[in-house]
Design a protein that fits this description.
The structure is a single chain. The chain is built from nine helices and no strands. It is mostly helical. It has two domains: 104 residues, 434 Repressor (Amino-terminal Domain); 38 residues. Helix 8 packs antiparallel against helix 9. It is elongated, with a radius of gyration of 19 Å.
């Protein structure tokens, strides 16, 4: 039995595999079937307890419809976390947690169905405006923000 703790990279890559699998609406069993392995092996990959080899990572990327580099990306400044500049670990963790939640998955699936790039930008602007709106702001003011962004 290997008592060595999993590496941070293996844990991170595994969490990205899990996040993408959930976004794609696949069960561990379905991913395992596509890879020709057991779902327990997928669990170990997702927890980072087993390292994913390059050819297996490529196969996972193909099944999940992403480039293999997807599994190494974090936040907006992936280099920042590696060079020790600033606290970049909290935000990507919060993003991963949200994207893996039921609401995050539903929001991502719905958003991905919107093909108009202008509409996508307006939705992002709307959500950003609402997120910066104090909770005490009246519903009328929030509706005004939405109207400004809609037209």
């Amino acid at each position: 039995m290997n008592t060595k703790a999993p590496s941070q990279i293996d844990v991170f890559v595994g969490s990205r595999v899990r996040m993408r699998r959930l976004m794609a609406g696949l069960s561990q069993e379905k991913l395992a079937d596509g890879l020709g392995i057991t779902f327990q092996q997928v669990q170990k990959y997702e927890k980072g307890t087993n390292r994913i080899g390059a050819s297996r990572l490529q196969a996972i990327a193909d099944i999940l419809g992403v480039h293999p580099s997807f599994f190494f990306q974090e936040g907006e400044d992936p280099a920042g976390a590696r060079n020790g500049a600033g606290d970049t670990t909290r935000e990507p963790s919060e993003i991963s947690s949200f994207v893996s939640s039921k609401e995050g998955i539903a929001l991502n699936r719905a958003f991905l169905k919107i093909t108009d790039p202008v509409l996508r930008k307006k939705i992002i602007s709307l959500v950003a405006a609402v997120a910066q709106t104090p909770e005490t702001e009246s519903p009328r003011a929030a509706a005004s923000h939405a109207q400004d962004l809609h037209g």
